[in-house]
């Protein structure tokens, strides 16, 4: 009977962890605390930035003014897509598209 109650306690702790930490980071632009199911630990995400459609759209629009202005969107993180990774196991835990501002 005590073994069964021990299993119940583990399930309660596990469910409390899942509610305390986010498990998906879609739509979030900055590093965030989350629970990684692969590592079974809470972590702070690592973000990698990549050029998005928004980056290239702004580049084309600004190139009509001058070519130098067309390079500005490549320097702005707001226009870039963001992919959240677990810093330990490198599993993707979230994705955010770049914004058109």
UniProtKB/TrEMBL annotation:
It is found in: Membrane. SMART domains: LITAF (SM00714). It is a peripheral membrane protein. PROSITE patterns: LITAF. The keyword Kinase does not apply. One of its GO terms (molecular function) is zinc ion binding. GO terms for cellular component: membrane. Residues 15-98 form the LITAF domain. The chain crosses the membrane at residues 55-75. It comes from the Eukaryota. Keywords: Membrane, Metal-binding, Transmembrane, Transmembrane helix, Zinc. Belongs to the CDIP1/LITAF family. This is LITAF domain-containing protein. It comes from Paramecium primaurelia.
